[in-house]
Design goal:
One of its GO terms (cellular component) is mitochondrion. This protein is an alpha+beta fold. Helix content is 30%, strand content 11%.
């Protein structure tokens, strides 16, 4: 399997190092884990500072910003691929609800809750 076998462990180690360097409780990082699967998704969603970390969220605790696009900014992507990222900030409630549904679906919920 070569070097690619070690990528998940390296990613987990880098995430643990990042969390250890930040104030306790200031960031939540969740990892996808399903035996036999390699699928993963990456995302950043920003919530109001007073939000709790439970799902589903009430309408006053919806994400207000997200990052879309690729996070692959390696040597290869710099010279061979076209990579793009975009930061979206909104106060529009329907878009915030959609972002919240996306997070809930990724966290194992159905994402259809309007709560």
């Amino acid at each position: 399997r070569g070097l690619s076998f070690w990528i998940p462990a390296a990613y987990a180690s880098a995430g643990a190092d990042l969390l250890a360097s930040l104030p306790a409780g200031s960031v939540t990082m969740r990892e996808y884990c399903r035996p036999g699967w390699t699928f993963h998704s990456k995302g950043i969603w920003l919530y109001p500072p007073d939000s709790d970390k439970t799902f589903p969220r009430s309408s006053d605790r919806l994400p207000w910003a997200t990052v879309c696009g690729s996070s692959n900014f390696s040597q290869r992507s710099s010279f061979r691929d076209l990579e793009l990222s975009c930061f979206i900030e909104t106060g529009e409630e329907e878009l915030r609800k959609d972002m919240g549904k996306e997070v809930e679906a990724l966290m194992g919920g159905d994402g259809d809750s309007d709560s």
